[in-house]
Amino acid sequence: MSGPAETPVPSGDRTNLLDFDLAGLEALAVTLGHKPFHGRNLFKWMHKHGVTDFEAMTDLAKPLRQALAAGFEVRAPRVVLEQPSLDGTVKWVMELADGQHIETVYIPEDHRDTVCISSQVGCALACTFCSTARQGFNRNLTVGEIVGQVWHASRYLGRAPSNIVLMGMGEPLANFEAVVKALAILRDDLAYMVSKHRLTLSTSGLVPNIYRLAEVSDVALAVSLHAPDNALRDQLVPINRKYPLEELLPACRAYLGADPRRRITWEYVMLAGVNDSLAQAKALIRLLEGTPSKVNLIPFNPFPGSGLATSAPGQVDAFRERLMRSGLFTMTRKTRGEEIAAACGQLVGRVEDRTRRVVRFEPRTGAGAP
Ligand code: SAH
Prior knowledge:
Low-confidence stretches: 1-7, 351-370
Bound molecules: S-adenosyl-L-homocysteine
Mean pLDDT: 90
CATH superfamily of the largest domain: Aldolase class I
Radius of gyration: 21 Å
Number of helices: 10
Shape: elongated
Strand order of the largest sheet: 3-4-5-6-9-10-11-12-13-14
CATH topology of the largest domain: TIM Barrel
Helix content: 25-40%
Strand content: 15-25%
CATH architecture of the largest domain: Alpha-Beta Barrel
CATH class of the largest domain: Alpha Beta
């Protein structure tokens, strides 16, 4: 296993094999005049063993190795900054072939290690409490750019991470095709072998694509809820105006299907004086009644100019107690990597704010929200 120094340098003019799923590589092997199993072997070399040099892929036919060397490469995003935090969290800023930047975070814990990956450069959704929203939307990541983040983390760790969350920059369900292909690669036994229970897609609630996802995948679903009613959610998560709670909740229940062991994880960022009252806890309990749920309370991670403050720890505890008392399983997420701006909602790449948009939260004015 190699370290960051050996991350391949992007060349941009060859076809990136990280963009191919297993079936795609099998088809490619056939196109190049070989048996499909060579495609499987290639898949395993790249993802399981992290090998980028075709000559080292000893069980591929020599003419195939030559054909690959002539027109293809294994190109993960290039790490341009590796920032370790005091708590063991590591943030990587990665540069893509076109010079744009994304961020990936590695979070070690006692019995698991989680890699938090990005799905887009920037984000179009304009959630008021999220710093990625400030940079506006630049573009979707390719399959290879999504998987390449885990490829890199696996080289760093010397093995695949146990858990992966699509909670970095971007809205994964707005980059549907690439994300679904990437999920399949991350799950594959020949690649990263991450269990469906340990692979979590987090969405702001793109309702039609929650239904579409249910048809092709059964990974764990986390939904950024953040408010117990439409009036407040319209402001905090503006996509709620398009897909309000009365559409979101049924889509989430449909996603779970009939399996009694599955639950939706509701993410709820704790904002002082905005969404953290006990009356709002009660409203949340009523909202989630009948939907198999767990709630993840996230202390708000501040960033310059947000105009928002995190709830006092006592308030978070009281809110959690109230939910627990009603039987709602509730966890408070530990903030990790705060001093390196690696915590939830602090990922911005190193891209200029192209929109110069100033998004400030104005409590309950409705019309003033972006
Ligand atoms: N677009 C997806 C995934 C990216 S955000 C989504 O909305 O779910 C991952 C999680 O971090 C979301 O729950 C998001 O609401 C939360 N988050 C964003 N900004 C935050 C901040 N400043 N502090 C704490 N959590 C934040």
